[in-house]
Design a protein that fits this description.
Chain A contains 14 helices and 15 strands. Chain A is an alpha/beta fold and about 400 residues long. The two termini of chain A are about 35 Å apart. The longest helix of chain B has about 30 residues. By secondary structure, chain B is an all-alpha fold. The N and C termini of chain B lie far apart (about 45 Å). Classes of the chains: A alpha/beta (about 400), B mainly alpha (about 290). At the A-B interface, β7, α7, α8 and α9 of A face α1, α4, α9 and α10 of B.
């Protein structure tokens, strides 16, 4: 008995010292930037997100402190099976510690499970579904940039309050569209409005005229676009062609990115209201970062909010690792550290990560400028209002996240 | 009921694109025996050429309708001369694989330089606005697309089936040795035919630029549907592909109305059904 206790103690002591030693010395990190590299979300995330992650690593200054940080990137092609296969390979073979970006809610939720299973870290910037920090929250996940609850409670609420009390939805037929429609519908009904109809369209649809005709026939005051990227740009462009806005109906682009506005052109996009949490031309810091970013991008485009979120998320992750003194390769532990530190960076300002993994920061209501107001190739937005983070995102009291019930 | 008429009309508009593209494919397959998988990429190039002409050369839409098919058609002829002609007499599969590879390369190059979200191309001033038809608001531009494509389709059919040039062409594919004996340059005719088919794809690209985004993947998204159209219509049948193109546009439009979730797959369901009943397609002749 004595012998076994002694050996147990010895074993424990050994384990602690070796763990401590490797913990202090292990300064290697591998970041996997998983995005849509070639499809309809490639411009808003894609190679720009990988660049943002690289810039975060460079700006962290950890290389100077002896850290070795590598980045690999992958293309999930908007398919959950491909996304999870890459994620598994990254954890099992390539020894990746953290996966970042992952636009497309369908893929994002699937990858969420893999990261939890492998105890990695997951900083999602590109996906919108609020389920990531709600019903499907995970101790390994931080959702950085925006979500469907925020979009519904900013753009959606502002439009209902401005008199848009009847809605018709054009919804992308997958996890993201469903979440955005659900969250926006809740806001509309809570504010006395009504949803009179809707249509679910397949992802990546080139022609929206049939759907727009149905929206027109519904006589709803607002046509809510619960879609993103190429689908949104095509809808807006074709809605202009069918005279929808001229006919008195209003388009609510619930999710619109800088690259979308560029693709539509100011002539057609002018006057649209929408919400983002980052715009390159907000202040001196965002402009300085964007200038550095554009110089490295082949298209010389400034960062979208998704790419900015990747940068900020990776910066905060590396700060947490620095504070821990080394990389424990234990996702839950790193994310706990990230949650314990307030967030602050040049792009999103001050904020925090809530216990459910939701990052809280300001959200901004923008309006697309008229062509005559725009002074440069990427001068697109007019700031209409600022919504403080605690009002924009899901209050913890309403969150269904299991992590909160401890 | 009104909504149904509107959907029929909208279906006809999309059908115009299917018809124009499948017509080009049918011409190329019928005359060259090549399954031209690069057709979508060439359609995309048509839209991009129109965009460049406008933004770099200040050349407007109307000139683009003429110039883009010629420019892309010449590109097609170079492809035929340098690569495709070596496949004469080989199995269809080789042509399919080669053109598929070409399509991937062309799309990759454009994507590398222009990203994926695309560029705007405005509707020409003369065709802006719309008409209230009572049951729907019809954008003038879409009406123009239907009429213009119909004219082009009928003209192409006439050229191939009713003129002397068309007769030579058809003869050259049936029996090249004999036609050559009459002193007709068969390889040149084949090259020109490929150029014509490619030009039709580019023309559809220019027509589509003001409606859709000018995007590197615009052809890739469409080409599979167009192939289904060609298969349903009967590979190589000119009239078959025109009629099927318009008809499938309408069927797809109606699906978007009654059961939108299936709108992307309805064409393929039809394809399976047609192939089960009539493997040569609706108007195809047995090989």
């Amino acid at each position: 008995m004595k012998k076994s206790i002694a050996s147990l103690l010895l074993g424990t002591a050994l384990a602690v010292t070796t763990a401590g030693a490797s913990f202090a010395q292990d300064k290697t990190v591998k970041i996997g930037a998983l995005s849509d590299q070639s499809g309809l979300y490639a411009d808003l995330g894609g190679p720009g997100s990988t660049l943002a992650a690289q810039m975060a690593v460079e700006d962290s200054g950890l290389a100077g402190k002896g850290w070795k940080i590598d980045i690999i990137s992958g293309d999930h092609q908007n398919k959950p099976d491909i996304g999870t296969a890459i994620a598994r390979q990254w954890f099992d073979v390539d020894k990746v510690d953290i996966i970042v970006d992952v636009p497309n809610s369908g893929v994002a939720l699937a990858v969420n499970n893999v990261v939890k299973e492998k105890n990695g870290v997951y900083i999602n910037s590109g996906a919108a579904t609020s389920d990531l920090t709600n019903a499907q929250c995970s101790p390994n996940t931080v959702h950085w940039t925006y979500d469907t609850y925020m979009l519904a409670h900013t753009t959606g609420q502002a439009l209902v309050k401005a008199g848009g009390d009847t809605w018709f939805f054009l919804t992308a037929d997958y996890a993201f569209g469903a979440a955005l429609e659900r969250d926006t519908t809740a806001v509309i009904t809570a504010n006395g409005g009504k949803v009179v109809g809707g249509v679910k369209h397949p992802l990546n649809t080139p022609d929206f005229s049939s759907f727009l005709l149905q929206a027109q026939a519904s006589k709803a005051k607002i046509i809510g676009l619960a879609n993103a990227g190429g689908d949104t740009t095509n809808t807006i462009k074709q809605a202009a062609e069918f005279g929808i806005v001229k006919g008195g109906q209003k388009l609510a682009a619930l999710l619109l990115f800088l690259t979308d506005v560029k693709a539509i052109g100011l002539e057609t996009a002018q006057g649209l209201n929408f919400t983002e949490t980052f715009y390159w031309d907000m202040n001196d810091q965002t402009r300085a970062f964007s200038k550095r970013f554009s110089a490295k991008m082949k298209s010389s485009a400034p960062p979208t909010m998704v790419q900015a979120g990747v940068y900020a998320g990776v910066r905060h992750y590396l700060k947490a690792l620095d504070a821990l003194g080394g990389n424990p390769h234990d996702g839950v532990k790193v994310v706990e550290k990230m949650k314990s530190m307030p967030t602050e960076d040049d792009l999103f300002g001050k904020g925090e990560i809530q216990p459910n993994g939701r990052t809280i920061h300001n959200a901004y209501l923008f309006e697309v400028k008229k062509p005559s107001e725009s002074k440069g190739p990427w001068d697109f937005y007019k700031l209409v209002g600022t919504v403080p983070g605690d009002q924009a995102f899901t209050p913890l009291s309403e969150s269904k996240c299991a992590l909160l019930k401890k | 009921m009104q909504a149904l008429y509107a959907q029929l009309l909208v279906g006809l508009i999309n059908g115009s694109f299917y018809a124009l593209l499948s017509l080009g494919l049918a011409v190329i397959f019928g005359m060259l025996n090549i399954i031209n998988f690069a057709h979508g990429a060439l359609y995309m190039m048509g839209a991009f050429v129109a965009y460049f002409l406008l933004n770099l050369g200040g050349i407007n839409y109307w000139w683009a309708l003429l110039l883009a098919p010629i420019i892309v058609g010449i590109f097609g002829m170079i492809l035929e001369r340098t690569m495709l002609q070596w496949l004469t007499g080989l199995d269809h599969l080789y042509g399919l694989l080669l053109t598929f590879g070409i399509a991937l390369i062309v799309q990759g190059v454009f994507q590398n330089y222009f990203g994926s979200s695309g560029m705007p191309y405005a509707i020409p001033d003369q065709l802006k606005g719309g008409m209230n038809l009572g049951f729907m608001f019809l954008p003038v531009y879409r009406g123009w697309v239907v009429i213009f494509s119909l004219v082009v389709c009928i003209a192409t059919w006439f050229l191939i089936e009713k003129t002397r040039l068309g007769a030579y062409l058809r003869a050259a594919t049936e029996n090249p040795t004999l036609v050559r004996a009459f002193g007709i340059n068969v390889p040149r005719m084949i090259t020109l035919t490929y150029g014509l088919g490619v030009g039709l794809a580019a023309l559809a690209g220019v027509l589509s630029a003001p409606i859709n985004q000018v995007r590197p993947l615009m052809g890739a998204d469409l080409i599979i549907v167009v192939f289904a159209v060609v298969v349903i219509g009967g590979m190589g049948s000119i009239m078959g592909s025109i009629i099927t193109g318009f008809a499938l546009g309408v069927i797809e439009g109606l699906t978007k109305y009654f059961y939108p979730e299936a709108s992307n797959t309805v064409v393929f369901v039809l394809m399976v059904l047609v192939l089960l009943v009539k493997p040569t397609g609706l108007t195809g002749r047995a090989a």
